[in-house]
Amino acid sequence: MIVKAYPPRMTSEQFEGWSNSDGYELIDGVVTEKHMGAENAGIQSRLAYFLVSVVLPGKLGEVLDAEAMYQCFPSNANQVRKPDVSFILRERLPDGLVPRGMCKFRPDLAVEVVSPNDGYEEVEEKLADYFDAGIPLIWVITPKTRTVLVYQADGTGRRLRDTDDLTADPIIPGFRVRIAELFPNPPEPVGTKKTSAKKTPAPAAEA
User: Fold this and answer.
1) Would you kindly state where each structural domain of the chain is located, as residue ranges?
2) Which of 83-92, 112-121, 133-142 has the lowest mean pLDDT?
3) Which of 36, 38, 146, 153 is most buried, most CB within 10 Å of its CB?
4) Does domain 35-182 have CATH number 1.10.3720.10?
5) Is the separation of the CB atoms in 24 and 33 below 8 Å?
6) Buried b vs exposed e over 24-48: b needs ≥16 C-beta within 10 Å?
7) What is the reported pLDDT for 201?
8) CA–CA separation, 47 vs 175, rounded Å?
9) Burial class of residue 188 in the structure, from the number of CB atoms within 10 Å of its CB (0-12 exposed, 13-18 middle, 19+ buried)
10) Which is higher by pLDDT, 116 or 148?
């Protein structure tokens, strides 16, 4: 097994220039591996496809994948997050261009797909960072429960299930997809024995 070697601590500037940053975030100056898996990648690809099919024809902005780096957290200059999927409105892109390196401004939508190895505290910490940055719309997708938690910038949110539609108004007008369409795998049969899983955070309030 090949293990990537990396320094235990970095500044955000060092992390931006680090050639091995794929699959890593910078958390309080510490290089931290992101948990990933094939099912997660499938969900990310599906969501990105659905978003791009609305965003590009409408020239609304840019949809970025899981390697887009954001250093936009006012309480910590050495915090770099990589949402699994993100979206930036066209009018907020500097000179209308996607930065070649790190984004020093927040996205308008940040999406996290929960991995089986993600702990409750890890998801909560990501949400705290996104709220700190003032991201107006946040989606947390949990494959195991086939749900999406939709959060607003003030921390209020709601839980959507398989048969619900996911929308992004007013940030991405016209976007709508059935939650079930996000998942590459079918639901587990009723009565299937499930192993215990780490909890994902419940929304602060139901809409």
Assistant:
1) 35-182
2) 112-121
3) 146
4) no
5) yes
6) bbbbebebeebeeeebbebbbebbb
7) 57
8) 11
9) exposed
10) 148
